[in-house]
User: Fold this.
Amino acid sequence: KKKPELGRFTKDEARILVGKVWDNLVESDLKSKIKGLKSKGNKVISLLTSFTMIFYNTLLSEGFDKEYALEMIGDVGWKVYLKMLGLPRRLARIRYKFSQNRMGFMLNMFKKFPFSPPGYENKSWEEEGKFCIDWQKCAAFDFVKKYGTEEDADVFFKTWCLYDYAIAREMVDGGTFQR
Assistant:
């Protein structure tokens, strides 16, 4: 088994591995499942979800240790999350002085795209010093549960669902997330 002590990837190794992931995604029927979704945001998130599942399983088929594969999925997904945060964070900093207003602005942007209905449903409200959101439906997790395995759902939870804690700190200084 390939393990973390072997180090990270060279650019060529990463290019080859990502090529295998895309080939595996094309060969899977997941892309056809995405086409039937109603909103562009749900399609984007489901494509990223599909990529996550295929990437993890490709790493395993290439002989990577499960824990290392999970770490790699988490690292790659985190980079994507940070990229998604870039524009909303810049706009919030320009528009608002106070952290709570910035956080609310960014969350409202993300609720419009990509975490939008019909795949995402939530109730949100503000309290003193907090912006509260109760997600009742998550298109990404529903997609994994419907088309993936139990292991895929576990990997998804250990990566995507846990990003919420760190992304709050990235959104604003002192930002926190609670379930």
Observations:
- Helices lie at 11-27, 30-35, 40-61, 66-95, 99-112, 139-147, 150-171.
- The mean pLDDT is 90.
- The two ends are 36 Å apart (CA to CA).
